[in-house]
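User: Round two. Same drill as before: sequence, then structure, for each protein.

Assistant: Same drill it is. First protein:
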Amino acid sequence: MTDLPPGWSEVPFGELITKIGNGAFVSRPGIEPNGVPILRVSALRPMSLNLGDIRYTGLSPDEPKVGRALLKPDDLLFSRLNGNPDYVGVCAAVPHDTGPVAYSDKQIRVVVRKDVIISKFVAYAFASPNIRASVRASVRTTAGQASIAGPDISRVIIPVPPIAEQGRIVASLEGHLSKLDAARNYLNEALNGVAKFIRQIRSVELLGSHGGGGGVELPPSWRWGTLADVLEGIEAGKSYACEPRPAADDEWGVIKVSAMTWGEFRQSENKAVPSGKEFDPRYEIFPGDILVSRANTAEYVGAPVLVKECRPRLLLSDKSLRLRVRSDVSREWLIQLLSSPFVRDQISARATGTKDSMRNISQRSLLSVRVPVVPTEEQQLIAARVEEGLDHASRLKGEVVNAIRRVELLRRALLREAFAGRLVPQDPTDEPAAELLARIRAERAVQPKAARARRTAPKNPEAAEAAATPPGGSRTASTAPDAGRTVPRTTATPPGAGRTAWPVATPAPAGYEQGELL
């Protein structure tokens, strides 16, 4: 950052930290209340901590594993690991009314100097666009998981106003952000309303004004049947060993599950068939085909798409089904019928599989789905009315989505202004942050350094090394003069190496032991 207001300073976040460390690893925490609760990965979002998003460790607070990982009010909690990089390195302050709850090894707890920085100020700062970009640059991705380490967080440069001004900024942000949160919640409800409107359109038009279930009266010219009554058959694709890239225009490709997941056919979601690989061209996809996802998540299994456009040389996969529609059946009517809540509920009930991440629907089960059979001359009219209603719903949804984007842009702008010093006025009587930081550094400089333990050759080197080395690396022991106890301490780190250790002469906050950065 540049052009800071008077009284502000910029420092590496590590200068403000007294303790930082990863949480407890608990194998297969349970959903039934048993022992200390532990936060799930999804509990932590930017500036927000959901204390109800928990599992249970089955351990008591006296167990060292969870005892050292119990959160305290005003702790800062960072996300260390997540499948989504946008959620890695995000931060929230622990509320004052927090009961006994532990944080996991996928999260990092930070304790800051309360006389220099306010915890909520830090949480808001790490959500601001500039600092968020700095954090994002340190995120690493391995095997589909994004992560960040404590030293990376400690190196982030943050602005530090006078502590009185920090309080004014936090108070102003909380007022503005609460209003934006209320607006976002209202818009989310509006999106849910649009989704209900779409379901209602399909239910009324496709089941008739009195329709609603297999035993409900249908219009006089309609009758109950199954999908087998409107189809000539179903074709299944094949499994191919493909290359992990999309097919070129002159190559054959096989569609992925994602090509049928989003309510429209996405021909770009495919994998290339290796050159010379044998395949059956009868499985080529053409415009007008109705495809169904045979295997997908619980939400999308059996989801239909109408192929409007398709490049040549694209094949069905083993997880896709093509419906061969009877000549007297409107494809537009059928695709809307397959998307209706009545049919989707039946498909979900017939899908098999123990995991929601991959459910399956067989051809036999699909053909047995109960549907209203409508005279041919009415099918196209029904499809047109549904399309008209969906067009209205789509425009309404677009307006709501645009409003949500504006709310998020306002949130970013608010945070940007706050940490550029333009949200609240400065008070010239506030003690400048530079003076407070200089005094703290001077205090640290005169504190006596602990003597390093002398090494002696052990009689049994292997046994001595095993006893002295804790999991995670080599440490030596030192004694803080004012702490009155032996504490773990990292070996010497060259200046600028990015590893910030808690000064051994700094008293630990109440309830904590001295330690090192992980």
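Second protein:
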Amino acid sequence: MRKNRINITVVLLALAIISLFLIQGYQTSQIYDRNYTQFKLNRSSSLERIAIRHEKTEDIRKYMNLMKNDFREEYKKTLKSEFKSLIKSNEISLKDTSIFISKNKETTHFILEGITKDSLENDLKIKLIIPEITKVQQLFKKNENKELSPDSLTIENKLDQLILQKLFTKAKFVNDAMYRAFNQSKALEYEKRINLLFIDSLIKSEISNDNLPKKYQFMIVNEKGKPIKFKNQAKNYNSKLLKADCGKTLLFPNNLLDEKLYLYLSFPNENLFVFEGMKTSLYITFLLVILVGIALFSMYKTILLQRNFSELRNDFISNMTHEFKTPISTIKLACEALSDDDVVEKKDKETLAPYLNMIHLENKRLSTLVDSILKSAVMLKGEVKYENQEVCMNELVEEISEKFEFRIKSLNGKLKVNITDTPVYSICDKLHISNAISNLIDNAIKYSADNIEIEISLFHIKKQAILAITDKGIGIKEEYLTKIFDNLFRVPTGNVHNVKGFGLGLNYAKGVFDYYGWKISVNSTFQKGTSFRILIKNKNDDELRN
């Protein structure tokens, strides 16, 4: 029985370790899935920004070319008109001039002249020299999202801002420019339409701002799903990428006229990158698994050591008790020989009689103790042999009660026996059941102090057979009730040692009852008494229920 419990415990420990690994593996998988999902979201976000920035930059490049060629006359007319309204003058002149910045470099400027009135109604001549469409060009330069300079309130800056607004609100002019731009890019080859080096630098710039790996590869695929091969390829361009491993975005999302091109972005070490983000969590999980594994393994080793120790202890007890049997038998034979008239003369026999009687009683008590220890050792090893038969519990309880009645009366005690008239039959080993019940009654006698009052009852409650043994002895404190059936446990009595025993009787009794599936329970009140109840497996239970 004990060996089976140890095996079950070992199996449970193994299952606990396996379950721990499975749970930690599942949690790690969940964390990885969450991190990988976030990684894909970051990749998609970067791709969208790359596509938008790329398209805007390409539009700026196209419109800058148009502006250099087509906006000059429109710019001059708008410049003159806005200068006239700004200084409120009807007399405006505009001339071209060239200014040499250095020996070999000159720039084209406009000279604007106009006459207006000051606060005293005097004529005031205003003259401006401004570069040709410089501010318009700067509008399309990269990262031109800066605040106005401190001198932005000057006439020149005000004029420049008004001209820009005026130019880009002329719908017909802008539409014509856009039409020419689309016609120019309609049939462009991939090499002319796409600048791989620029896209490469744009990807590098964008992913540096996100939580993404630094190593990457990309490819561009046409609307038929075929990767495009370029003569002049960028360092990170790879036309053989697996589409399933890449993030994807439309390269020109707002261009409805040209062929659709798709940008695919891949990170070769994306799994390693995701795991890197889980590094702290993985270390903690791994450490916890190791610690729990070590703890469970140590527990397993301790259980094995305890089992080996228990087996050694039981073997020692068995060997010791068997060794005691020989001197006990020898002492018994010696006492019987000394009691024989042929061995000891009559006059010497009377002298030796008290001593022989004392030796005989102590030898008998020693034999009983050795038998109890041997039974306990056999019980712990699970080697008890039971010879089952049909036993009438009514008759067995009555026989046991009669055996103890003489002993209780000799101690000036009272024994009350109540046995039901309804027969109670059980399949069990009569000898072991008798010994177990006798141990309970013997304990009731030993722990009843001076006034022994014991009641033995066999009755039915809700058609279940119950054997109760109740005393009015010293009782058991509540903190010891769960331990009284442990092997070799005895309730502490301080410095008082008037009750003899080894703490084996109750453990033996519970072992026998557990073997047959009988339930034993105890209720006790300190200094008032104790009651043991045994729920018996009655052979006639089914008949009683019917």
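The CA atoms of residues 23 and 29 lie 10 Å apart.

User: Perfect.
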